[in-house]
Amino acid sequence: MSETYIPMVLMIAIAFGLGSALVLLSVVLGPKYPSDVKDYPFECGHLIDSDGARKKHSIKFYMIAIIFLLFDLEIVFMYPWATVFREIGITALFEMFFFLGILVVGYIYVWKKGVLEWE
Amino acid sequence: MSNNKAVIMNLLPLIPMFPLIGMIINGLIGKFLPKKLVHLIAITALLASFTTSVIVVSKLVGLPEDSRSVSIEIFKWINVGSFGVSFSFTLDQLSSIMLLVVTGIGGLIHVYSVGYMNGDKSYSRFFTYLNLFIFAMLLLVLGSNMLIMFIGWEGVGLASYLLIGFWFEDSANAAAGMKAFIVNRIGDFGFLIGMFILILTIGNLDFNSIKIAVDSGIITGTVATVATMLFFVGAMGKSAQIPLYVWLPDAMAGPTPVSALIHAATMVTAGVYMVVRLNFLFILAPATMTVIALIGAFTAFFAASIALVQNDIKKVLAYSTVSQLGYMFLGVGVGAFGGGILHLVTHAFFKATLFLGAGSVIIGMHHNQDMRNMGGLKKRMPITHWTMLIATIAITGVLPFSGFISKDEIIWRAFASHNTIIPWINYVLWGLGALAAMMTSFYMWRLYYLTFQSGETRLKDHHVVEHIKESPKSMTFALVVLSFFAIVIGWIGLPHLFYHGKGIFNSFHRWLEPLVSESEAKIHVVHNTGLEWTLMIVVSVLVYISFFWARKWYRKEISVNTKIWAEALKPIHTLLYNKYFVDELYYWLIDKLILQFSHKVLWKTIDYIFIDNIIINGLVAGGSKTLGFLVGLFQTGKLQFYAFVMVAAFFFIFYFMTL
Amino acid sequence: MMPIEPGILEQLGMIIPLLLLVVFASSILLIDVFAESEDRAYLGYLTAFFLFVVLIFVAKDFNNNNVSRQIFHSSIVIDKFGLIFTGIFIIAGILTSLGSIDYLKKYDIAIGEFYSLIMFAITGMSLMVFSTSLMTIFVALELMSLPIYALSGLFRVNNRSLESSVKYFILGSVASSILLFGMVLLYGATGSVNLVTIGNEITTKYTNLKTVLSSDPIIIIGMLMVFIGFMFKTATAPFHMWTPDVYEGAPTIVTGFMSVAVKAAAFATFLRVFGLSFNNDALLHLANGAISNTSWIQVLNILAIATVIIGNLVALNQRNVKRILAYSAIAHAGYLMIGLVGYFITKDPITYSALVLYFLSYTFTGMGAFIAISIFEPKDTNKVMLDDLNGAAYKKPFVAATLAIFIFSFAGIPPMSGFFAKFYLFKSAYVNAGLHIPVIIALIASVFSVYYYLRILVHLYMKKDYGDVDVKDYKTTAGSVIALSIAGFFVLYIGILPDQYITIIKHSFLSLIGG
């Protein structure tokens, strides 16, 4: 059994070794000038204030992000479809229509729910 | 020919369907319907059922003799491994007779009930129950395997319970209902075990399969004996035989039409029907047959003797019913299956007449049932009087009324059939039968004279006396029709002494022949025309003697002479009047012995201390709950832990698999 | 070896039920956003109607479909096995949508998404049982799971509901990734995602080249990981840990749907995958020292026994009715696992029909019980303690009576369907498959189960103090009554006349792909 897995074990070892080596190197070699601002916990998009970490974020932020992701992926799916469209023919067209149809339903839903309005 | 068969197959499922529909309609919305519509629905259902029955039976007659058995499967019901039961009906010679009796008499009693129950506040409930009863009874009669029969068997038991306790506001009625139910359960227990034995032996409950198994010798004598004994226990309960007869007299607490329909004409004869249905099985077990004959004869005798002294008009008829059922079992017990069924049919007609007549009297007397208060109703209720007189003559066994014909056959066969186990037993059976016939004559004429003759009514309340009048038309109609049949129905089965050759007058036995002749042939019967004539005359003389005796005692006011007799016979009278103290004996047995034993020993000691506290609460509950608690500790609610368990389990299983 | 596929239109015609489900789910979503009124009760009835329409199509397909054909590049197959289970999911969906109307009203939640999520979940389940490809299975599994995650967090303001949703989501993701990794390994070992091809590959390797395995445990790891993915969804020990917490926190009606439909879907797919890919005696009973000393059958048996014991024992100590039913659901998963193992051993129509009949019975019983419990649930608590049920039977005799029917069916008391289903399942596992020890343990455990089942009825009927629950909270409208009547009727009907169902199920066995 062993021979087959030697490359895999090697790969795991290299990945693990490389990752830890890089972190270690930056700790050892990197210059350190600590300041208050640098020690402050970092959160993307807003400042951490005295309310603590349990402060509620605006739901809109996540909504927009998720919807962006969804429709972005839809486009991603359409690229490979476009390349094989000629080979599959009319069937592919129907399939894509169905797929888009479902997405349009989702889009209408999102719109009517008011997710797209920021205010 | 095949056309006939097709018609039967199409119509047969409809017969029980009609009362079922009637029951559902009346049961669901009957409360909101006007009374007229309620009884119209119920009676129409029965009429439709009866008409269909007549059609299918006439089609059955049209079939050649050897193919007069038509089965139809409604659906496959249970199919587990090798054991299967289908929900199917069979129409053959036997079930066709029962079909006509049940729907015919049932229909008349429905009509009668319109008058009798008029004014009752639970009018629709009554008709719902009646239709339920007819439905269940039809299942019992038509079912082509023992399980369908058992459903009907339990169904009629349920209907009977509901109807005995119909006026449940009175706790005595409710108690009578429960008594009937519990006593019947004892019998059903036997029936069930019997079925289990059959399933174990042949894996099937179909009547045809049982017959085939009997013919091919799969069912041996021992199995047949055990199974039939158990089935007979069931029959004892349902058909009120010693020692399980105690519920039937109490069942008279129900409305009188119910007593006539369920507790005289149809349901209680189910046991007899079952024995005849399985005649090929019973005939394999001479021991069971002997027991049946003996119990039948003793029941006939004892119940008749109790009936001699009862004062409640319905009680007399109740014990009379028990006694007549005894005759039927005596008949089937000595192998006279046809005779037993003939007596079942004739009895259904004359006993229904008697009960309905009694009901008419009770209505007339404003719900006074004590015969000592009656008298001279002949003039006030002429139709009731004449019909009751006819039925009385029929039941006491006077030629040419129906009772004579069927009863004579049974008594003769009791004498003439040879018993292989106890050779001399036929003398005992004949003696008991003849004495019971004599007593039957006495108590029936006593009932007749006390009620209809012997001067003016002895009721104290003169206000009521003035209002005694004939019952409404719906009631008298049923009485007249039934009493007509009480005269003539026996003529279809005249004994061969009177009638030879083919024709209407012995068509009954020829009709049943294909079903029972094989079994009947296995019993050796003495053929001696002279002896048969002699015994018939002897029994008839006994019957006439007691008729004159009763006439002398009860025709006029209760005479001084009678009172002297009564003084002399006081101990016997007390014994009989209290029904041999059987109820008290049972009560003592159950209350003092069984209940005390179960309370003190079984419950307080064994169950409560030992099982409950030590075993269940201590070992089992404690152990399992602790174990459950320990396992529950793993349920920490922590997500990480759950995920950890999953992954750990993966490695664990992997380890075991590839170790 | 790719079978010739019918034309695209014909293929679409074969999946009409699935298409309809998607269309109806989308329409519910649209109706919901465009509707003016605040009342959403009609959506429940509409969903039930839609699902009923789909059920008719499924039934029609079931009657017409005599040849099972693989379609869409062998990624799905329409056979009677899948159709029967689709029917079961749809029935569960109908009961859920009818029973949810009162429940959602009680919590003042007027959201139509509930219904479209239910329908999407059903779509996923149906697609999953039709799948014959690992990819389709995974997509369908996620299509089933995501709506359920959302549904268990339906009460956004209730901490328990949120906790349930998050726990289910995270653990579900773990299970999904294990499943996915298993699929990857299988693909790596056999070079195909098609279940049939995988099955052929494995058969070749095991029959001709036994030694290959000793140097190549990938298939075993892959199989095990796929199994774990399904066992997680079916709540088989030790992958059941999420069940009590999630079932307790999720809205009661969703719990019912989860415990019935999701479990059935996972079991059915388990059966399908096993039958198609791992249906190999050498693989199943492999217990020699060369490769492994424990066979699959033994492993699954031990897990089944553990599930039965854990489910029944822990339930004894619970006082929260939803938790009792959650553990009871685990116990039932154990019974089903025994039936499934029995089927793996015998592969005959009897054990098969016993298993499917159990699902049918369990669908009506489980849905009915949860609907009834949801009616008795005190407002805004999302929690039903045993004491909350005290004397409830005197306020709602009908609901209590139906609940009693379902509880008796759970406990396996005749003539309820639960009795016959359990009897048939145990009998076939004992007699046909020879699983003596598991069945005996399950029988003993189900004796214990009667204790906690009947305890519910004791509180319902025998405790007279009504507690401080307001009568007004026990609101029932037509929807619940219809759902309870349907479920109660079928529990009795299947219990008394199971024969015709067994016939139908046995019929479906003939066309089972990979049977």
Would you write up a description of this structure?
The complex is a heterotrimer of chains A (119), B (659) and C (515). In chain A, helix 3 (59-88) packs antiparallel against helix 4 (90-112). Chain A is built from four helices and no strands. Chain A starts with a helix and ends in a 7-residue tail after the last helix. The longest helix of chain A has 30 residues, at 59-88. In chain A, 71% of the residues lie in helices and 0% in strands. Chain A is flat and about 60 Å long. Chain A has a domain at 53-119. Chain A has helices at residues 2-29, 36-39, 59-88, 90-112. Chain A has 119 residues and is mainly α. Chain B folds into three domains: 1-221, no CATH class; 285-560, no CATH class; 600-658, no CATH class. Helix content of chain B is 74%, strand content 3%. A two-stranded antiparallel sheet of chain B has the order 1-2. In chain B, helix 6 runs antiparallel to helix 7 (171-202), helix 11 (256-265) packs antiparallel against helix 16 and helix 16 (337-364) runs antiparallel to helix 18 (382-396). In chain B, 51% of the residues are buried. With 515 residues, chain C is an all-alpha fold. Chain C has one domain (8-510). Chain C has helices at residues 8-14, 16-34, 41-64, 80-106, 113-130, 134-152, 159-190, 195-208, 210-214, 218-234, 242-249, 252-277, 281-284, 296-316, 321-346, 349-376, 397-411, 417-432, 436-462, 478-496, 499-510; strands at 69-71, 76-78. Chain C is globular. The B-C interface holds B 75-81, 621, 624-625, 627-629, 631-632, 634-635, 637, 639, 641-643, 645-647, 649-650, 653-654, 656-659 and C 166-167, 170-171, 174-175, 178, 217, 220-221, 224-225, 228, 232, 238-239, 241-242, 244-245, 291-294, 296, 299, 309-310, 313-317, 350, 424, 427, 431, 448, 497-500, 502-503.
